[in-house]
Design a protein that fits this description.
The protein is an alpha/beta fold and 367 residues long. 43% of the residues lie in helices and 15% in strands. The strands form 2 sheets. A 7-stranded parallel β-sheet has the order 3-2-1-4-5-6-7, sandwiched between helices. The longest helix has 19 residues. The structure holds uridine-diphosphate-N-acetylglucosamine (UD1) and uridine-5'-diphosphate (UDP). The site of uridine-5'-diphosphate (UDP) has 15 residues, from helix 12 and helix 13.
């Protein structure tokens, strides 16, 4: 009788997980393993979830836990309960988690308690800001992981400082960039400009905002509205607005500026098409800092810190405050976009992270 192939379970749930998981799942299909894709249901709107499965060629999730939104405790607990049942039934040989969202840490906790080997894709990033829920998720997930797959050299140093044995750390590059590089040539910048209602000839800035530090507290929201309006005084701004904070932004008069175009969240190819054609991006997203770096689009990150400093040292990113944002936009508009290919890109962000990760996972399974 032949041995059954080992079972690898991938945990996804929130928007940024999908472009990270897609190249890993595709590359692992070349190895003799069975794969099971779990969607926790943390994100569930068509534009926050399903559109990525269609556009990125991800397989349909084998399981959707359908947990939906909730407080951190309620959401994390619901995911843990669902995964414990699933892992008890399926007995995975390896669980793979992505990034730093609640679905990531919930799965890590369950796998660790059930003594199931755990691999963390995008390990070792640190903002050193414990007010960010993601930083808590990163620390706990990394502490529990057997395989730490890192996207940048600074992450190796952080894990080393935390006592992780070097044998468990693998610098593999950035799978989110594999997905970007697969799509970037085909992005339709003009089509998406038309679709969202931009005039094709006018320069525009793309903004995305969803961090609790910007959109949860009404005092922060009021400052944010002033800062973004001061940008819209200078240049057309288009914002595919994340559902978090939409109500608070609306109530604070965010939408009341004629040069500000607020649209629903966009699909992956539409969003990146918009970014590709923009003069600059203003964001508090993690992934968008990385994508703009590779696309050579100036990125102004509206946060006091970043867990992705490599996008500053080897990319186009710059941290700004709500006060300094309007002036930073003036400078970026004056400087214009750099020549394509002239800005640096971090090491191994080359489109081949997926196969490297798959090779590490397969080796860990004795294949
Ligand atoms: C989560 C992640 C964050 C990540 C972001 C990516 C955590 C702790 N946070 O933040 O790290 O940057 O996803 O987008 O995991 N909502 C909808 N429709 C949806 C999903 C959410 O309307 O499909 C609304 C709900 O009101 C919900 C709120 O957005 O309460 C927040 O959703 P949640 O998943 O808790 O956190 P995010 O802010 O999306
Ligand atoms: N994104 C998208 N549509 C949008 C905004 C973002 O497809 O309207 C993509 C973006 O290109 C990146 C991912 O969503 O691939 C980042 O997710 P998000 O900013 O929600 O999360 P973070 O990276 O901050 O955790």
């Amino acid at each position: 009788m032949t041995e059954p192939q080992p079972l690898v379970v991938h945990i996804t749930g929130a928007r940024p997980n999908f472009p990270k998981a897609a190249p890993v799942i595709a590359a692992l299909a070349e190895h003799p393993v069975r794969q099971l894709l779990v969607h926790t249901g943390q994100h569930y709107d068509e534009r926050m979830s399903e559109v990525f499965f269609r556009q990125l060629g991800l397989p349909e999730p084998d399981v959707n836990l359908g947990v939906g939104s909730g407080s951190h405790g309620a959401q994390t607990a619901a995911i843990m309960v669902g995964l414990e049942e699933l892992f008890t039934a399926e007995r995975p040989d390896l669980v793979v988690v992505y990034g730093d969202v609640n679905s990531t840490v919930a799965a890590a906790l369950v796998a660790a308690k059930m003594l199931i080997p755990l691999a963390h894709v995008e390990a070792g990033l640190r903002s050193f800001d414990m007010t960010m829920p993601e930083e808590v998720n990163r620390l706990v997930t990394d502490r529990l992981s057997d395989l730490l797959l890192v996207t940048s050299p600074d992450a190796i140093a952080h894990l080393g400082n935390e006592g992780v044995h070097p044998d468990r750390i693998h610098l593999v590059g950035n799978p989110m960039i594999d997905t970007l590089l697969r799509h970037v040539e085909g992005l339709d910048t003009v089509g998406v400009a038309d679709q969202v209602g931009l005039d094709r000839t006018e320069p525009y800035v793309v903004a995305t905002l969803h961090r609790p530090g910007n959109v949860d507290d009404p005092a922060d929201v009021a400052e944010l509205v002033r800062a973004v309006h001061a940008v819209a005084d200078q240049v057309r701004v288009v914002i595919p607005l994340h559902p978090r904070g939409r109500g608070r932004l609306e109530a604070a008069g965010f939408m009341d500026h004629e040069n500000l175009l607020v649209v629903d969240p966009l699909g992956y190819v539409e969003f990146l098409g918009l970014v590709k054609g923009s003069v600059a991006v203003v964001t508090d997203s993690g992934g968008v800092q990385e994508e703009t770096t590779v696309m050579g689009v100036p990125c102004l990150t509206l946060r006091p810190n970043t867990e992705r400093p490599v996008t500053i040292t080897h990319g186009t990113n710059r941290l700004v405050t709500r006060d300094s944002l309007p002036g930073a936009v003036t400078e970026v508009l004056a400087a214009g976009r750099a020549e394509p290919g002239s800005t640096p890109v971090p090491p191994l962000w080359d489109g081949h992270a997926g196969p490297r990760i798959a090779a590490v996972l397969a080796r860990s399974l004795g294949l």
